[in-house]
């Protein structure tokens, strides 16, 4: 996750409030215009945001703003770390387990295995925490970064397609390795 995306997501609760207020005022103005056109006097603007307006704003943020934000971030700030995160996300979705350990990730994903990649691994795992995929399990030493995380159950429900894609990718890789081994064995 780019620092720009992280910063924007951190500001989302405040933006939600401003967007909700904007929706509320637009609805109040539309109601006032409709009443004036009908020959009535407009009501004063309600001081309490209706629940339906809050739902509409939540849907707008979830279905329109966040997907566009993620797409813009991918096109402007995609890095090698993005590919690492994508591969680890596939691994998490495929495993279908309640908890993930750093040792599982290091065993699975060799490009981040070396000790000098520890900061990058931690940064990627922090991004999963921010995205609500994972929740860190506190370690006995609070000075050290977490090495275990609980997986949000919704990840397994919502990302079954990602798990299937990862399973297919692994199967193709396995077949390629077997074909190569067969060619080498036959050549000898």
Can you give keywords for this protein?
3-stranded antiparallel sheet, 3 strands, 5% strand, single chain, 188 residues, Arc Repressor Mutant, subunit A, 70% helix, mainly alpha, 2 domains
User: What is the CA–CA distance across the termini?
Assistant: 47 Å
The share of residues in extended strands comes to 5-15%
State the domain count. 2
Which CATH architecture of the largest domain is right? Orthogonal Bundle
Let me know the largest β-sheet: 3 strands, antiparallel
Give the gist of this structure:
This protein is mainly alpha-helical and 188 residues long. The protein is built from eight helices and three strands.
Task: Give a verbal description of the structure.
The protein has two domains: 3-77, no CATH class; 80-187, Orthogonal Bundle (Arc Repressor Mutant, subunit A), CATH 1.10.10. Helices cover 70% and strands 5% of the residues. It has helices spanning 3-10, 12-37, 51-77, 80-95, 102-108, 118-130, 153-158, 160-187; strands at residues 99-101, 134-136, 148-151. A three-stranded antiparallel beta sheet has the order 1-3-2. The longest helix has 28 residues, at 160-187. The chain starts with a helix and ends with a helix.
């Amino acid at each position: 996750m780019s620092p720009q995306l992280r910063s924007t997501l951190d500001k989302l609760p405040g933006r939600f409030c401003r967007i909700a207020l904007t929706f509320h005022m637009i609805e109040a103005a539309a109601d006032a215009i409709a009443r004036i056109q009908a020959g009535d006097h407009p009501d004063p603007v309600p001081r309490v945001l209706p629940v339906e307006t809050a739902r509409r704003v939540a849907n707008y943020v979830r279905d329109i703003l966040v997907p566009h934000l993620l797409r813009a971030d991918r096109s402007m700030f995609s890095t090698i770390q993005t590919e690492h995160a994508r591969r680890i996300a596939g691994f998490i979705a495929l495993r279908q387990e309640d908890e993930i350990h750093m040792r599982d990730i290091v065993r699975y994903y060799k490009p981040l295995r070396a000790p000098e990649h520890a900061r990058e691994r931690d940064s990627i795992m922090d991004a999963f925490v921010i995205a609500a995929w994972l929740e860190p399990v506190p370690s006995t030493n609070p000075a050290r970064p977490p090495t275990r995380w609980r997986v949000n159950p919704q990840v397994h429900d919502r990302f079954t397609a990602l798990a299937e894609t990862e399973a297919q990718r692994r199967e193709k890789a396995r077949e390629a390795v077997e074909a190569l081994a067969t060619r080498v064995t036959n050549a000898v």
